[in-house]
Specification:
By secondary structure, the chain is an alpha/beta fold. The chain is about 45% helix and about 20% strand. The strands form three sheets. Strands 7-6-5-4-1-12-11-10 form an eight-stranded parallel β-sheet. A two-stranded antiparallel ribbon has the order 2-3. The protein starts with 5 loop residues before the first strand and ends with a helix.
Length: about 230
């Protein structure tokens, strides 16, 4: 039986946290999604802490996704996630120092793989290379991976199919999930999770922020049952 992927709602637009993220969360605190997160930019750290605390009060799991590539900025982002008491650190390129910080504080670490650059982030590299990289990082202690599949410069569908099948760790398909067609593809390959952020702000699923979240959750459940 295939896993029904988890929706991680990102309170972000174009890879930055929305200025009104606290108000948006307040409007959808009772929605069906169990996971919420946002980026390390541009909300001030005290506001980040307050928002994550509110999310946790609702019984939701929390993730900070850090769009950073050099060790200094990746480690700084990881420290933000620690300070905010997050359940997951997503993003960053893999560094032993980041892994050590996550392990020390009991936070799951799901780094990027491949050649990641720019903001909003773009993914390059070969599929074989990304799979080999991921499997080597599992041995080092990574808990799973933040795969920018729909930002890939190559064949995104082939990447998704092979990566989820050949990497034996949780995979989150992050970025540019903006249609029911992509939801159906995600259901077919059955990763651990996926993120949606900008698409909700752009009303790609037709409704208020909360209504769109529940539509996506209902689509996942109904489609999984039908299959």
């Amino acid at each position: 039986m295939k896993n029904t992927p988890e929706l991680i709602v990102m309170l972000t637009y174009n890879d930055k946290t929305a200025a009104n993220a606290p108000e948006i969360f307040e409007s959808c605190r009772s929605c069906k999604a169990d996971y919420f997160g946002f980026k390390e930019e541009d909300l001030p750290l005290p506001e980040m802490k307050k928002l994550f605390a509110e999310i946790k009060k609702c019984g939701k799991k929390t993730a900070l996704e850090v769009v950073a590539y050099d060790e200094e900025h990746c480690l700084a982002g990881a420290q933000m996630a620690v300070d905010c008491g997050c359940d997951f650190l997503m993003g960053t390129m893999f560094y032993d120092s980041v892994l050590e910080l996550c392990k020390k504080h009991g936070m799951r670490y799901m780094p990027y793989v491949g050649k990641v650059y720019d903001r909003p982030s773009v993914l390059g590299g070969t599929i074989d290379g990304m799979i080999a990289e991921a499997n080597s990082l599992i041995e080092k202690g990574a808990d799973g991976f933040d795969l920018l599949a729909y930002r890939y410069t190559g064949d995104a569908h082939e990447l998704i199919r092979r990566f989820v099948s050949e990497v034996k760790a949780p995979v989150c398909l992050a970025g540019s999930v903006d249609s029911y067609e992509k939801l159906d593809e995600i259901l077919e390959v059955s990763p651990w999770s996926f993120t949606i952020g900008s698409a909700f702000f752009d009303n790609q699923f037709d409704g208020t922020f909360a209504e769109q979240i529940d539509k996506v959750c209902d689509h996942l459940t109904k489609t999984a049952v039908a299959v």
